[in-house]
Amino acid sequence: MSHRLGPYPSPPAVPVEACPIATTLGSLGRKWTLNILRDVAFFPKASFGLIRSRNPGLRQRTLSIRLRQLVSEDLIRRVVPEEDRRHPYYELTEKGLEVWPILTSLFQFGIRHHADRVFADGRPRSVVEVYPKDAGLMLGTLSAFARTIEDGRVASGVPRRVPASE
Predict the structure, then answer these.
(1) Of 19, 51, 94, 126, whose CB neighbour count within 10 A is largest?
(2) Which residue range is the domain that position 29 belongs to?
(3) Would the pLDDT of 74 be above 90?
């Protein structure tokens, strides 16, 4: 008698030529990529220096390459402020905002299953506990995102950051 843990999906309803997970990992699974996206997502106006300082071991050349790749994949954009051209920064694009549910899932897994390394007291927590004011932003609307197609493109369904002035 076999014992199954938890629900397993049935086969896809439409043909899938290549594994979507493997395809996504081809882009997001490169070393340092998720760390860089995390910093751009969680730290508004993330500069090259900030990203480098938050990732010990990340070499300047590797960071330059990853940033160029993420820009070319339209996940982030490099912003050069007119008033301070010497201090460019990076921000998520509309497409990049769709990474929020992925980052949140990894974050949730880490605070739940690696609490002994994440928190001094080792107690697991939920996203709502860690981000009480921003749980909606962190959790997004993954269900709506996964089900919505507009004009042949996936609609983000992920809340955008709203500057404090709005």
Answers:
(1) 51
(2) 18-94
(3) yes
